[in-house]
Amino acid sequence: xxxxxxxxxxxxxxxxxxxxxxxxxxxxxxxxxxxxxxxxxxxxxxxxxxxxxxxxxxxxxxxxxxxxxxxxxxxxxxxxxxxxxxxxxxxxxxxxxxxxxxxxxxxxxxxxxxxxxxxxxxxxxxxxxxxxxxxxxxxxxxxxxxxxxxxxxxxxxxxxxxxxxxxxxxxxxxxxxxxxxxxxxxxxxxxxxxxxxxxxxxxxxxxxxxxxxxxxxxxxxxxxxxxxxxxxxxxxxxxxxxxxxxxxxxxxxxxxxxxxxxxxxxxxxxxxxxxxxxxxxxxxxxxxxxxxxxxxxxxxxxxxxxxxxxxxxxxxxxxxxxxxxx
Length: 326
Ligand SMILES: NC(=O)c1ccc[n+]([C@@H]2O[C@H](COP(=O)([O-])OP(=O)(O)OC[C@H]3O[C@@H](n4cnc5c(N)ncnc54)[C@H](OP(=O)(O)O)[C@@H]3O)[C@@H](O)[C@H]2O)c1
Description:
The protein is α/β, with parallel strands linked by helices. It has one domain (9-316): NADP-dependent oxidoreductase domain (TIM Barrel, Alpha-Beta Barrel). The chain has 10 helices and 10 strands. The protein has helices spanning 34-47, 61-74, 95-109, 147-159, 173-180, 203-211, 242-251, 255-265, 277-284, 293-300, and strands spanning 9-11, 17-19, 23-24, 51-53, 83-88, 114-119, 163-169, 191-195, 215-219, 269-270. α3 (95-109) crosses α4 (147-159). 44% of the residues are buried. The chain binds NADP nicotinamide-adenine-dinucleotide phosphate.
């Protein structure tokens, strides 16, 4: 068990630490408002969340930053209590765009530094301000680059004090090894943010990461919002699972609380998204019960090895991460 009982944080390999639960802030702009996002960040901080997962590409960094600063101004929290994770989008992976992109995020958030900055995906796209670059025939415009060069530019951002810790997201083992074995590596990735929940347990990647002191941050820990525009809905809804429901009943907990508890109990950070005040609170009530070893094993056995987030539209990208076993 990696969890510190005092403040629900787990140590990172660079000496910093990360709160084991954070609020996810990605929401489909067609079905949720930016104000809803700001209100949710404030409810989350009032509830006790100290970790907020954001990204430039979510289009709501401004509101997230305002909400965090409002809570700091109120005296509810200090800046150093908050752990903000930002993400470097795929059109900004060329080294010369890395620092300006992070500086733009800091300006939008109106913060001096982010706690964690991660490469959102290992697949580089045509550099520029077009978030989803395609040619006139609708074909994706990919870009060839050495991810180690991106990493060196990130290391310089950490040395300049713009970010406390560096990580990656959606990296497979080979891509992690590429960074870990980089000649002259100055700062190791402290975390890898990937899909992770009882239907996609990431057992092998988790073991590899634990061996290398890399914390897994579980995205879509509740099984996503099941928007068929980007979610593989051929896998059944996680929160309807009969076994998980029965465990919830035993502890007088909801299924959402059980699946979050499963991950934190094995040292995996969770970042459930909710913009509903009751569910934001519900998702945080996971520290007052624990699953037995047998229940942990039974839940691990629910693994179907099918992703909700497959990113199949980019499967012909040379760095598409999900062709490899893990
Ligand atoms: N790095 C990446 O590539 C990547 C990819 C995907 C996601 N992420 C990050 O991970 C975060 C979480 O992932 P996600 O948004 O895909 O999915 P998720 O957190 O697994 O699920 C979110 C969905 O579950 C609902 N929900 C929340 N709490 C609930 C509860 N207690 N009971 C029932 N339903 C509940 C939410 O609706 P309400 O809002 O109405 O409660 C929303 O529809 C994102 O917001 C984002 O920050 C990162």
